Amino acid sequence: VSDLKTGHFYQFRVFAANATGVGKPSDASEAFLCEKWSMPEPGCPYDLEFREVRDDSLVLLWATPLYEGQSQITGYMLQISHSNQLDNWTILTAKPISETHYKVTGLQTGHTYRFRVSAVNSAGVGRASLPSEPVTVQTQPGTKEIKIGVDDDGFIFLGYEAVKMNDESEFLWSKNFTEPISSQRTKVETTKNRSMLTFTDPSEEDLGVYTVEMSHSPHLSSSYDFTAEDLERLRELSWQVRNPLIALKSAWQVEVSEKGSVRLWLQTESLSSSAELRLVFNDREISSSPRRKINFDTAKGLVEILFDQLSQEDEGSYTCQLRDGRAKNQCTLVFVDQKFREILALADWNRWDIQRKAGPYFQEFLTWSVNEDCELIIQCKVTNTSKDTSFKWFKDGVEIKDFAYDQTSGVCSLTIPQVTKKEAGSYRAVVSDSRGEDVSTLELLDNEYDKLLQLLSEQCALSAGPLRIESTAEGFKIYSSLRYYISFLKTSWYFKGRKIDQEARAKSGCSMQKVWIEILNPTENDKGEYTLEMLDGKETHKRFYELSAEAFAEALLEHQRLKQLAIAERNRAKVIKGLPDVVAIMEGKSLCLTCFIDGDPAPEIFWLHNDREILDQTQFTTTKESKRTSITVNKVTMEDSGKYSIFVRNQYGSETVDVTLSVYKKGEKPPANAVEMG
């Protein structure tokens, strides 16, 4: 009511009106004094209404206060009370809400409630509205909810079905409870008791809460929050409805038969007899030809391309385009590069395999293995042989004879007890007769040879025995015995968990069948645990030895004994070089024999003729030095033939070396095995 004057009293009456006319007026209201609103807080909201009353929730609507106060309204506070407790109000919202509607949840079914609303601005909370009418929280029988979906034409829709209607009932749609529905973005259709709101071109602009209520009974209402997730999901479904796909059971598959033919195929769901197929190869439509047959079974949804003999001309992309009514689909096979080459090679191999099996052929081609004895076994197996079948084996083009061939089983094997570098190479086996020939090759080179060494190293490491100790003249060795050792097997030694580096007192070594660590001049500090680690290229194998006090004492005692023996052997008297076994000289000439000796202290020296010491210095002349001695036989006669010996001795031992002298007359030939002197 506008145009009222401040300070005047007013009364109001209300008339009801319909098509027939205006009815009687109501009683007059109490006198109302018109005065200027001077409160800083906003006025009170009004027209509280309910929508979507359910068993545990409802939606509360209200109108904005006529007076905002001294500043703009920023929100609303809600209060709730049980209908019989009008003096006991509870705040429903912890923070102000910005809308003029609110969904109240967590209510108790069958209970009756009242609500009131207060507006909020910068000055504070205004007066509460008049309490709402009491409302009982309970879902009415037959209540329906808005459903969202996609229709047969691919349009997204919201649908609602009314429980009760009369001839004048209408479906009233709104957005966010107050906004009218845009006729440019939506279309509403009503059929009997069902109403559908269809989106013409849905986008983010259409997101929000959509409400529908019945004109004759607003409490019969429902709402749906149309979210971005719904929009994304239903857009996808809409596209699928408008663009139906023929379902694929299997995408392109490639198969090679035993005879070498190639089959490309795919399968869809069952199609109608009017379904259409278009095959495109490298952007060019293709059809059946003598070298390429195309089959299309609509009932099974099967598409096949058959090649009796695949060739390089068939490399490329194959696209199958299908249409069955409005539904369609297409699938592309990129049949190029490595994938094509592998299939082409397999097809060629299968055709060749059929041909080679007409005569003797390899049932198992050349392979290699390493047994527990660290032996290399190269083996193959032939079949379809006859008595005329020939079997040969080559390495690097040179025929090998020492292989084993069992004609009954067809197994042929070559066993190599110890692998060395010369075993690397190209092995070739050939089986043939009048019906044909077959060849098998094995390239035991590069990476394949490294694989052999790795596996051989593993077997060698597994064959390694437990660590043992052996005393030497220099100290003692801790060692492990193997079938045999190869350098590919990397070994490391550890003492008390720390790696032993090459140093003056510790030296590692190996032989064909043993690996060791030698400890020189051992001391008490060398007692403890020793570990041998063997790396075969993949795994590490370990052996352990605990050098206890008792074992150390025994090893040390033996070391000292061997050391004394070594000293004695080093210092004993010995002849080190100079004398041949047999010498020959012509009668009448003089003979001089010289040899070198060693020993500490300097040894005594004796020359013997036929085991008797030579004392005659007329026929025989001897010289004796600390490291050298010689004997001269002057004008040799036939009687001077025989055995001559050099005998040396000192406190550590002695040694005798013999030489046989053969004297021959002039004109005779000396013995063939003699060194001719003179």
TrEMBL record:
<dbReference type="InterPro" id="IPR050964">
    <property type="entry name" value="Striated_Muscle_Regulatory"/>
</dbReference>
<feature type="domain" description="Ig-like">
    <location>
        <begin position="587"/>
        <end position="662"/>
    </location>
</feature>
<keyword id="KW-0677">Repeat</keyword>
<dbReference type="InterPro" id="IPR013783">
    <property type="entry name" value="Ig-like_fold"/>
</dbReference>
<dbReference type="InterPro" id="IPR003598">
    <property type="entry name" value="Ig_sub2"/>
</dbReference>
<feature type="domain" description="Fibronectin type-III">
    <location>
        <begin position="44"/>
        <end position="142"/>
    </location>
</feature>
<dbReference type="InterPro" id="IPR003599">
    <property type="entry name" value="Ig_sub"/>
</dbReference>
<dbReference type="InterPro" id="IPR013098">
    <property type="entry name" value="Ig_I-set"/>
</dbReference>
<feature type="domain" description="Ig-like">
    <location>
        <begin position="360"/>
        <end position="440"/>
    </location>
</feature>
<dbReference type="Pfam" id="PF07679">
    <property type="entry name" value="I-set"/>
</dbReference>
<dbReference type="InterPro" id="IPR036179">
    <property type="entry name" value="Ig-like_dom_sf"/>
</dbReference>
<protein>
    <recommendedName>
        <fullName>Myomesin 3</fullName>
    </recommendedName>
</protein>
<keyword id="KW-0393">Immunoglobulin domain</keyword>
<dbReference type="InterPro" id="IPR036116">
    <property type="entry name" value="FN3_sf"/>
</dbReference>
<dbReference type="InterPro" id="IPR007110">
    <property type="entry name" value="Ig-like_dom"/>
</dbReference>
<feature type="domain" description="Fibronectin type-III">
    <location>
        <begin position="1"/>
        <end position="36"/>
    </location>
</feature>
<dbReference type="Pfam" id="PF00041">
    <property type="entry name" value="fn3"/>
</dbReference>
<dbReference type="InterPro" id="IPR003961">
    <property type="entry name" value="FN3_dom"/>
</dbReference>
